[in-house]
Each structure stands twice: as structure tokens, then as C-alpha cells.
Design a protein that fits this description.
Number of strands: 0
Largest sheet: none
Number of domains: 1
Helix content: over 70%
Structural class: mainly alpha
Strand content: under 5%
């Protein structure tokens, strides 16, 4: 398993000089998209469509997926960089799944403990979310694992470092925005998002395997939001 990690890290370190040559306005635009698109979409719906409905949830998810697709197009067509530059394809698929399981176990233990202590999940926002059909909640969970890791780990961290922001701020800026983006769920949700984001960040910096992060993130949300309804 260490071989994939070494290969991914060496690729990104040796390739960064050539990657830096591709930095242009499009990178700044796509970085803004990665950091703020989901936050703006999510909170636009909070303000303008406060009552969660199936139709509004589907529209919101469609806009978020469209933002993710636009980001990937920019990576390939605008920046002309490989997907490995954002942590995709840096490890064998089965190792990504195994590491995803490890991430899920670690995250579930810590996040679950925080949720229990803060009694998160018992507010009106959670009640409205739970009224959505199970198939839609499952899709939302899947989207969260894929898109949030793409935006806040794979793309944001890599591009901020490529822009010369520095390792500390390249990690801190996406983590803070990711955490504060959950403010509609209250202080407890911000704290839980920060803890989960920190865990995902550590694993990403260690493995440079975005697929593993996506699997781990998705599994944690699946266990927290879908499994209880399957067995209720």
C-alpha cells in the first residue's frame, strides 16, 4: 500500500514545476468555483427556498453536480492538466476502496462521538431532511462524498499549493470554508464538519488518493443518514 502513496507523492512533487506553468486566470476562476460554488448554492436555497421539498432538493443537487462537472472540464480543457493533478487515478481501485474503509471507520468513531455529545441531528433542519424519500437522501449522500472531496481536498489543496500559498494555508483555507459552509446546521454541525474535514485532509495529504477520500466520506454519510432509515 505504501508504494501507491510514494508514487502519487513523487508524481505530484516532480510534476508541480510543469503544473505551475499552466497557472493562469482559469485556475483562479476554478479555485473560486471549488471553494465557494457549493456554499453559495446551498445557502441560496436556505434563504430563498427555506422549506425543503423534493423538487428543491433535486434542483440544488443538479446545480452542485453541474459545478463539479464544470470544474473537471476546466482541469482537462482549461488548465490542460491530468486528473492525477487533483488526486484521481493515483492508486489502484481496490486499494482506494480499502483505504476508504479505513477513513470511514476513523471518521465514524470521531464524528459519531461528537454528534452524540452535541446531540446533533435533532433539530428542525434534520427533521425536514429526513422527510425526503430515501432514494433522494442516498443520492445526496453519494454527491457529498464525491463533490465535497473533489472541491475541498483534491482541487483546492493542490491548486493553492501550486499557486504558492504555502502548505499550512493550502490546508487551512479549504477546511475553514468547508466547515463554515455548514453553518445552517448550527454550531454543532460546524464543529462536526471541521472534525470530519480535518480527518479527510490528513488522509489526503498522506495518501494523495482522492478516490479513497470519496469512498470514506460517502460511507460515513451513508451510515449516518441512510442505514438508520433502512432498519427503522
Amino acid at each position: 500500500m505504501e508504494r501507491d502513496s510514494i508514487e502519487a507523492s513523487s508524481f505530484l512533487m516532480t510534476d508541480r514545476p510543469s503544473m505551475a506553468a499552466n497557472v493562469s486566470r482559469v485556475t483562479w476562476v476554478s479555485l473560486s468555483l471549488a471553494l465557494f460554488a457549493m456554499v453559495l448554492i446551498r445557502h441560496a436555497f436556505v434563504f430563498f427556498v427555506p422549506e425543503i421539498t423534493v423538487a428543491s432538493a433535486i434542483l440544488k443537487e443538479t446545480l452542485i453536480w453541474a459545478s463539479a462537472a464544470a470544474l473537471l472540464v476546466i482541469v482537462r480543457r482549461g488548465e490542460r492538466l491530468p486528473m492525477r493533478s487533483i488526486g484521481l487515478g493515483t492508486a489502484r481501485w481496490w486499494k482506494s476502496i480499502l483505504w476508504g474503509l479505513v477513513i470511514a471507520v476513523v471518521s465514524a468513531a470521531i464524528v459519531g462521538g461528537l454528534a452524540y455529545v452535541t446531540e446533533y441531528g435533532h433539530g428542525p433542519g434534520s427533521a425536514a431532511f429526513e422527510k425526503l424519500p430515501l432514494w433522494l437522501i442516498t443520492l445526496i449522500v453519494f454527491r457529498a462524498g464525491v463533490v465535497e472531496e473533489l472541491f475541498y481536498r483534491g482541487y483546492a489543496i493542490e491548486r493553492l499549493q501550486m499557486l504558492g500559498v504555502g502548505r499550512f494555508w493550502s490546508v487551512t483555507i479549504p477546511l475553514v470554508i468547508f466547515s463554515l459552509g455548514h453553518w445552517s446546521g448550527g454550531a454543532a454541525n460546524i464543529l462536526i464538519a471541521f472534525a470530519a474535514g480535518a480527518i479527510m485532509t490528513v488522509f489526503y495529504l498522506w495518501r494523495r488518493d482522492l478516490v479513497a477520500n470519496m469512498v470514506g466520506h460517502g460511507l460515513v454519510d451513508f451510515v449516518a443518514n441512510v442505514l438508520p432509515r433502512l432498519f427503522s
